[in-house]
Amino acid sequence: MLPKLYTVNNPRSPYRVVFTDPAGRRKLRHFADPKAAHAYHRELLAKAKVAGTVGLVLDAEMRADYFAARRALDGVPIMDAVRFYLAHRPVGLGATPIQDALNAFLQEKRRIGRSPRTIHSLELTLRAFVEATGASLVSDYTRAALTGYLDKLPFPPLTIRNHRARLNGFGEWLTRRQYIPENPARYIDVAHYDLTPPRILTPDEARRVMDKAAEYRGGHFAGLYALALYAGLRHGEILKLTWEDIHLTEENPIIRVGRGKIRGRRSVRIVPILPILRHWLEWVRERGLPLVGKGDSRKIRAVVDWQPDICRHSWISYRLAMVGDEVQVAREAGNSPDIIYRHYYQLAPVETAEAFFCQRLH
User: I need a labelling partner for 238 at 20 to 30 A (CA). Which of 17, 25, 105, 182 fits?
Assistant: First the structure.
């Protein structure tokens, strides 16, 4: 409706200018001076003539914002952008500081008993994301921010894949707690990487490692390296072992590993103690040495071309060659049969495996 000028029965403000804006809201303004009322009425009519009734409520700054928004949207209808914003705007839990949500996430992981190593990895990745992107609210946890962060990581594809998995875990938690409507990390493509066989120690290299372990600091680290080489235990699992977990006197000696991983969940598993491992464990116990030595053992690793997890890779490869059953080895190693088959199948011949497990004892 175009602006109209009325005279009303009001001794203090007898003049009224009325119009209806494009949203259907009635707008009115009162005047005591007839000249001011007529001037305002003429101004509104002029605006309406040039820009329609929209011109009655848009000043110069608002019109500039409108055209700037049109240019930025590059053809996307403004109402589509408005609807998207309303669906994703930071209201309610989305306006929570992301640091608060991150602390709550980590606290829950501690409460349900996730390992300190897992929690440490989660915290490093998530805090690095917050620092790199400048995210302040939970609503800043977006697909664009996550993609930009992962694209800039100077790591190999497998490491980036692990970072994405941690970010996805946090996103799933935010979604379940209704901080955000959906997990943005779910739609990020996973980095691809070429699967290369892990390097393993030859029987001669394994012998050199154990000879050095028996010599260095009086054998202080012999138990640790024997368990890694001839039981395939993870470093974190070895650190938690005690002599109560090792059953040497049974007919079939075993190690009970109570904090392993099977398909992402913790599970007790049984690892057989083969003769060469039994020898080394008895050698350690007879000398009153610690089962798991602590400190720096780089001089032991220096006798071969060392790589992370090379002892575990060696044990799994040779164990699979000996028994020929990936399900059994997976159960003993605390992995899935698929992982064992894809990474270690036919990596070592049986003859080499026999030399690894049946070599000369110290």
Answer: 105
Distances (CA, A) of 142 to 104, 148, 182: 19, 10, 10
Is the entire prediction scored with pTM above 0.70?
A: no
Residue range 194-245, pLDDT digits in tens: 667 788 999 999 999 999 999 999 999 999 999 999 999 998 899 989 999 9
**DSSP 8-state secondary structure symbol assigned to residue 191:** P
Q: Exposed, middle or buried: residue 75 (CB in 10 Å: 0-12, 13-18, 19+)? A: exposed
Q: Is 54 exposed, middle or buried (0-12, 13-18, 19+ CB in 10 A)?
A: middle
> What is d(CA 284, CA 328) in angstroms, rounded to the nearest whole number?
28
Domains and CATH numbers, the chain: 4-88 (no CATH), 94-187 (1.10.150.130), 203-357 (1.10.443.10)
> What is the torsional sign of CA 269, 272, 276, 277?
positive
Q: Is the pLDDT of residue 56 over 60?
A: no
